[in-house]
Batch of 2 targets.
Target 1
Amino acid sequence: MDPPHNDRLLRAAKGDRVDRPPVWVMRQAGRYLQEFKNVRKKYNFFHICQTPELASKVTLQPLKRFKLDAVIIFSDILVIPQALGMSVEMLPEVGPSFPRPLKIPGDLALLECDVDVDVALGYVYEAISLTCQKLEGRVPCIGFCGAPWTLMCYMIEGRGSQTVSGAKKWLYAYPKESHILLDILTNICIKFLVGQARAGARYLQVFDTLALHLGRDLFVKFAFPCLKKIAAKVKDELKQQDLDVPMCVFSKGTHHCLEMFEDTSYDVVGLDWTVEPAYALQKLPTKTLQGNLDPGALYSSKEDIEVLVKEMVAKFGGGKSKYIANLGHGVYPDCEPENMKAFVDAITAIV
Ligand code: CP3
C-alpha cells in the first residue's frame, strides 16, 4: 500500500523532524459526537464494530470535523475476549459486561485458545482495509489492541471495576495461571496487530489502561513482559513481510517505571496527564512521546485550551521532533466537540 500523503504522524514516530506536531486523540471517534450517537441509536455497539461499512463510517466521522493527522479504527479492546469465546455485552449506563467472567483458574479451559485470530477478527481487518480505501491516503489509519493485563482484568472482573481486586487476586493467589492467561492473550495481541498492519494500519497502539492498578513489582512481573514481547514480535514479523509500522504503548499510571520502555521496541510512549514532560524526556531520551493534556482541560474555555496547548507543546520541546500531540487519556463523553476542535486547531496552528 502507498504511504499516506499526510505522514506527519509516522515521521514523528520515527524521530524525523516535522513542520508541526502531528495530532490525534484517544477515543476521537464515538461517544461524544452526535453523528456517532445517531448511528448508535440504530445499531448495537458490537454490530457497528463487526460491520466494516459502519465501523469505517464512524472511524471517519471526526476527520470531517477536525484537522486530525490520523484516524483510529472504530473497534474495542474487548473484541479479543470475544474471539476467545467469551460473550460481552455493552449495557447502557454500565459499559461492557461479561455474563460469564472467569471465576477460577479452571475456567481457562473454557477459552477457545486455538482460535484462528485472522478469521475471528477478520472483520476488523476488513474495516481497516475499507477505511484505507476511503481515505485515499489522506491520513494514516491507526490499529490497536488492549494489553494482556487490561484484557485479563475485564475477563475476570466482568465489567469496569474501581480496584480490579478480582484480577489482582489471580496475580497473588494463582500466579502460574495468571501467566498462562497473559501468555495466551499476548500471542493473540501479536497476531491481531500484525493482521491489522497487513490490512493497512500504519501505526499500532497497545492500550494498557488498567496498568495504573499495579505497583512496580507486579507491573514488572506480569504486565511489562507482555508489552515488551508484543512490540518485539510484531516488529519482527512485520519486518519479514517488508512492513515497517511504528508502535506506541499507552500504559496508564506507570510513571514509576517509565524508563523501562526505553528498553523495548516501541517507537512511541504514550503518557497520561500525571507525567511531567520534563521527567518523561529524561527517562525516555530515544523515544517519541505522545500526550498528554488532561482530558478534563477540554472543559476550559477555548482561549484557555489554546494557552494550555501552547504550554504543553513548549514543555515537550516545541513539538517538531519526537512528539505527537494527544490527550493524556480518551476524550470524555460529555466533551463539547467545539472544545475538541479548539484543541486540534491549537496544535495545527503551530508554525
Ligand atoms: O476513536 C476511538 O478511540 C474509538 C474506538 C475505541 C472504542 N474503545 C470505542 C468505544 C477505542 C480505541 C476503545 C478502546 C477501549 N475500550 C479501551 C482503552 C482506551 C481507554 O479509553 O481506556 C477500553 C478500556 C475499552 C473498554 C470499554 N469499551 C469501556 C470501559 C467502555 C465503556 C465506557 C466508554 O468508553 O464509553 C467501552 C465502550 C465503548 N468503546 C464506547 C465506544 C464508542 C461507548 C459504547 C456505547 O456506544 O455504548
Target 2
Amino acid sequence: MNGMRKILAVDSHTGGEPTRVIVEGGPELGGGTMAERRDIFRERFDHFRRATVCEPRGNDVMVGALVCEPSDPECAAGVIFFNNVGYLGMCGHGTIGLVSTLAYLGRITMPASGPARLKIETPVGIVNAMLHRDGRVSVKNVPSYRKAKAVSITVPGIGVVTGDVAYGGNWFFLMYDYPGEISLAQAGRLTEYSERIRRAVNEIYPEVDHVELFGPPSHPDAADSKNFVLCPGGAYDRSPCGTGTSAKLACLCSDGKFAPFDTYRQESVTGSVFEGHVEIEDDVIFPIITGSAFINSEATLILNSDDPLCWGMP
Ligand code: PYC
C-alpha cells in the first residue's frame, strides 16, 4: 500500500458495548456465503481487522462489523463480526448496533405502522431483525441449544465449578452460582476467574470461547439475573451479551423453566438490560433479544503507509 487509504465507519454502543460498523473501504471478499467471505477475510485480510478494531484506532472492547452485500437476495445486508483477536459467528449487541446504524444512515424504510423487518446474513446463518418505532431493536437469533448440562470441571486455583455448555451464535460456558459479587468494581477479579475457567473448560470443550457468570440482579423488579461475560480477546462484555443471553434462554427452555410468551431480562455487569423471548419451531429454540443502540460517531479511519502502526499494534 502506498499513501493513504480511507475507511468510513459508524461507531455505536449497545448497552455500553461498542460496535464499529465499516460502511465503506473494506476488503474485497468476493460473492460467496458470509461464512466463505469470513474465511477469506481471516486468511487474506486479517491486517484489516487489526487496523480497524485494535489499538491505536480501536481497543480491546471494540467489535467490528463489516457490512457486505448479502448472497441471499432476501437479506437486507450481510455482516461479518470481528474483535481484537479474531472473528465472531454472531453478535447480538453488534446486530442491534448494525440495525441502528443502517437506520441512522437512512437505509431502513419504516412502514406506515409497526416495526421495520429485515433479514441479515451472518456467517452462522440468517437472523431476523425488527427496528421498533421507538428505536429499540429485536433480533431473532440463530437456533440456540445446550450441548452439555451441569458439567463439573476442576479449575486450577478455584476448585470444582459446575455449569452448562451452550450455543447461542457463539459458544459459552455458563456458571449459574458465581460465589462472589458481580459488579464493575470486581471486573479484574471476574476476568481472571473467568479466564481460569475458560482454560480448564477448553481442555474438554475447545469450542467454548466465552464464559458467562451469573448472579442476582441489582434490582429484582428490573431484571431477572445479572451476568459477567468474558469475550474471546480477554475483554468483558459491557452489554448483557446477545449470544450469551440466547445461550442462557436455550438452557432455561431445555430445563422447562422458560417458554414462548415468557419474558426474561438479563442485566449486564454495567447495569444495562436486554429483554429475551423465545420462539420454538419444530423443537428448535430461536431466542429473540431486544435492546437499544446509540450512535457515537461517524469516522473516517485513515491508513497511512508511513505509519509504523498502520495495521494496528502487533
Ligand atoms: O452481544 O453477542 C453479543 C456479543 C458477543 C461478544 C460481544 N458481544
